[in-house]
Amino acid sequence: MSNSSSISHFLLLALADTRQLQLLHFCLFLGISLAALLGNGLIISAVACGHHLHTPMFFFLLNLALTDLGSICTTVPKAMHNSFWDTRHISPKDVLHRTVSTPQNHIYYSMKIHLDCF
């Protein structure tokens, strides 16, 4: 007889138990993520459009903004969904998707390839 187990889902800890606090967390996540998206979008557009900003420092800042943008677009919507719909589980497939195929990994490898060309 072998010892085996399977995982059907992971349990998430709730930020709040009352519905009013869950909605408050949803609104806070929404406001913070929209502010971060706007700020990163402004950084990306400023560096991309300003030819005098094409220096290594601003190239690094552009890559940081892209990484932050990818992080926000990957994790925050799921947290907002869980807070709004009061769900406390996530499937192993979703965990794997959010840890392995995040935009940060793609940006990291594209940066590595781009920097190796210099």
UniProtKB/TrEMBL annotation:
UniProt keyword annotations, A-Z: Cell membrane, G-protein coupled receptor, Membrane, Olfaction, Receptor, Sensory transduction, Transducer, Transmembrane, Transmembrane helix
Transmembrane portions of the chain: 28-49
Compartment list: Cell membrane
GO MF annotations, alphabetized: G protein-coupled receptor activity
SUPFAM superfamilies xref list: Family A G protein-coupled receptor-like
InterPro entries: GPCR_Rhodpsn, Olfactory_GPCR
The keyword Transmembrane helix belongs to this UniProt entry's keyword annotation: yes
Transmembrane helix found in the keyword field: yes
Membrane topology label: Multi-pass membrane protein
Top-level taxon: Eukaryota
GO terms under biological process: sensory perception of smell
Listed GO CC annotations: plasma membrane
Gene3D superfamilies on file: Rhodopsin 7-helix transmembrane proteins (1.20.1070.10)
Protein name per its UniProtKB record: G-protein coupled receptors family 1 profile domain-containing protein
Protein species of origin: Hirundo rustica rustica
